[in-house]
Each structure stands twice: as structure tokens, then as C-alpha cells.
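Hi F.,

I've been meaning to write this up properly since the lab meeting, where we talked about keeping a consistent format for the predictions we share between groups. The idea is simple: the sequence comes first, exactly as it goes in, then the C-alpha cells exactly as they come out, then a line or two of notes. No screenshots and no reformatting. I'm using this chain as the first example so we have something concrete to point to.
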Amino acid sequence: MRPDIILLVLDTQRVDRLSCYGHQHATSPYLDTFAQDATLFRHAFSTAQWTVPSHTSMFTGLYPDRHNMLQTSSVLPSTLTPLAERLRDDGYFTAGFCNNPLIGVVNTGLARGFYSFLNYAGLMTSRPNETAAQRSLVDRYRYHFKRFLAHVVTHIQDAFARSDTLLDFSFSPLMVPLWQTALSFKGNTAKSLNDAARLHIERAGVEKSQPIFSFINLMGTHMPYRPPVRFVENFAPQLQRNKQERRYLRQFNGDVFGWMAPLTHVIDEQHKATLDGMYNAEVACQDELVGSFLQKLRSSGTLDRTLLIICADHGEHLGEKQLIGHSISLYNELVHVPLIIRDPSGDFPRGTTVDHVVSTRRIFHTALSAANSATDFEHSLTLAQSATSDPDREHILAVGVTPQNLLHIIQRRRPDLIQLRNCDQPRYAAWNKRYKLIQTGDTALELYDIVDDAKETVNLCDILPEQVEVLQERLQAFISHVGQDDTAVVGGVAYEDALVYRRLRDLGYLE
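Output, unedited:
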């Protein structure tokens, strides 16, 4: 019998703020307990620094420059078959429970393949599906009116996300309070988890013996920071006695432009402590809700027949390297992410840790393999292989392209930052076991030891030129394929062409 599969994405979750990854504060006791009964990947890295490209990589198994989903205006091409569609076509009931408007509201095509896709962010949030027989005549009229209104509102919201002018206007002091509250920007974590648990436990509307694939995206750790008071008291107690810091937090929560643009100065220590404390409070709050979700699955017996993948799409800068948010860099604050997998088959040993580097794009292959839907080639790339023979051979890649609409806003408001911080230059990162090379534009290079220098404070380019050469060759081979239409990569079928595969592997693109 094929397992249920749950992909739970903790949007904007920094790996270094989880206690199971070594954080000094007990921010994640429920995830810690879960990790003790699962496989924890200590060095998992996202393929990109923000939502759309990183999610697309998890849904397709491709790096961002191959799937080309690099902007908020991007739409998944018809030549690519995403994970949900593959699983749906192979008999799975597919459901999405999404709190991120870039996936649930903006029409990126990432909701393709889901029988049911519930959105918890936006003016018109979705509700679990009902059959027509369950509604009275009045309820049916009300239902169709709400669907029509939701359709109109969604188009308006989508237009704001795609238009530089409208997006710039939405960042104004007049609009920010409106869309942060009325649009329910961070969604509803508790409701989305409850709805997902109910589907997997009660299985309403699912055929007998039909397995379920669920995608859940939570936005609890995303800005703005407004956790319940009890979590603030625990993780940011200084706010109770410091009016100045409370004022700073209010300004920060309302300054959407400030969430995305580089800082012009080193962040004040007190401000940094405030952001750290509030972020940790949000992590702990979300962890408690996830813990309740896990307990429901566990007590019902559902967890023991489910492949559960918990990860993040990216992290968050909180003032490090004079950066805020997750729009520009490929530093560890953004691309080093948690990845914890528990499965009923034993392919992922319980209570173990994998120490070599892996890419989150392998989630695609892992889910297909668990569902017995993978080709032989795709099966060879599952993360389950990492416990014995690493499919990446400890060579992985990431791509960082600043969204064009954000560049437009920075150009209008702070044009000096474009050149000062190379905001308009693409960034590429390559890992070779313990070393990571970041290339910004054509020439700027940074080399870091991710084991001994996880915060990337010492650039080793001049000290280890041989490592720079090895990784730069790999990056150049990758960059040289950017923009080409490799049918050997698109769709996955041509992967089985051994000659094409060997050529791409020799060029350094495939692992």
C-alpha cells in the first residue's frame, strides 16, 4: 500500500533558530521531538533565496535557471509537470493548504495538479470543498456569489503582484495597514493545519485505499512579527520595559520596503536583539501549532502510514551583513534550511543525522519514489539514497536573482543601493563538501567553510585558490547552460537517454 505524503514547508524558517539544529533557546521543542524519530539533514540548502523559485524547484526537481521561475510574474510552463500533477495522474488525491499569497493568490501555476487547493491568505480565503447536495438553495446562490467575488478579488490581488506601479503603491503608508490586515497576509496557520489533519484522518471525499498527497505552506515566521504575548514575554522580554524598542518594532512591521532593501548602515544592537527575539517568538508559536498537528496524526495512527517531509523554502536576514529579508543574497541565513523526513518504510532511518550537503530539489524525486511513481533515474536521486550513497556527490547549486519588481522599487526609492550592493547582479552558489563559493555578477567571488564558519565571516578566496578554481569551473559549466532549452532536463523523460545524461553530467550540470 502506497503511503500518504505530506510536504510541510515552514516558509521563511531559519535553520539556526531551531533548537534541534543547535539554537541556544528552546524555540522548537515539538520539532525537536519529531526529529528524534526521523532523519535530520544538517546541511540542506535551498536552490534559491525566495519563495517562487525555491518552491518550483521542490515541485519539479530542477534548479531555478532550468525551470526559469524567477519572477513574481513567472508562470510554470506547460512543458513541466509538477509533483502534484504527477502524483494526481498516478492515483493520489492531491490537496494544498497554503498561507503564502505568492502561491495561493498570484497565478504562478504552482497550484497545478491539486484536486483541492485551499488558500488561507488574501481577501477571500478558501474553505474546504462541499458537495452540491450538502448545500441548500440559498447556500448555493451564496456559494456561487462568493466564488465570483473571490475570482474578481484574486485578479485584483494578482494585478498588484505583477504591476511595478501597483506594487510600489501597495508599499505606501496608506496601503500597508490595509493589506496586512484585510488581506490576511500571513494566513491562518492553525486553521490550515487543522484542515490538513482532518483530511488525512477522516479522508472525506477520498476514495477507499486512495493515498493522499498534501502540500502545506505556513507563514508564521514571515514578517511582520506579532506573536502572542506569552511568546514575546519568553523570547523578547525587553520590549515590555523599552518604549523605544516597541516604537522601532511598530515602524519595522509597517515598513514593507525595509523588509526587502539592503540596510545603509550596521543595525543597532538593540534593534537587532528586538528582531531576533520577535523572530524566535514566532518560531516557537508556530512550533507549538505544528506540534498539535503532529500529535493529531500520531494519535490517529496516520503518522505511521505517512511520508512526512518538513523543510523551509528559505530563511531570513535579520540585519546580518546589513541585509533584511530574503530578496538578494545567497548567504546561509537564506539558503541553509531545515530538512527533516520521517517515513513508514524505513528508507529514512529513525533518529539519524545526515551531515553531507543536499539540495531541497531532491524532495521532488523523494516523493515520487515513495509513491512508486518515479522513473529508475528519478529513483536514484531520492534523498533516501543520502544515508548510504549521496546522489549529489556533495556538489549542489543555488541561484539568486532579485525579483524585477523589487529592483524597480529600489531604483525609484534608493537607486544608490543598486550599485552599492549589486542588487541587479545574478548570484550563483556552488557547494563542494564543506566549501561554498558565491559568485556575484561575472567576477565577485566569496569562498566559505560552511562547517567551521557557518556565519560566513571569513572569505577564503585568497587562502584556498584551488577550491575556488574547482567550484568556479562547476559554476561556469552551469551558467553556460542558462537560457537553453534542454529537453533532456525538461519533463524528466529524457533523463533516461544515457548519452545525453552523460554529456550533461560531464559538463557539470547533472550530479
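Notes:
The chain is about 40% helix and 15% strand.
Residues 127-135, 142-150, 483-511 have pLDDT under 50 and may be disordered.

If this format works for you, I'll send the rest the same way.

G.
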